[in-house]
Write a structure and sequence with these properties.
The protein is mainly α. It is built from three helices and no strands. It is globular and about 30 Å long.
Length: 58
Amino acid sequence: MYHTELETEIISKMKGLNGNQKSAVLNYLEKIPKMSHSTRVYRRKAMKQIREALSGQK
């Protein structure tokens, strides 16, 4: 359930970004090490950084 909420939040915030901003967010997501995705703490920190980046680029 939490995963769905995060996914919805990211998608809704990305709709308001221009092409360059969307590319920057996607590049950031691709740089997150795949092995660390499964750790709860790392995901929480990554989501916080993504939220800050998305809110700052409006």
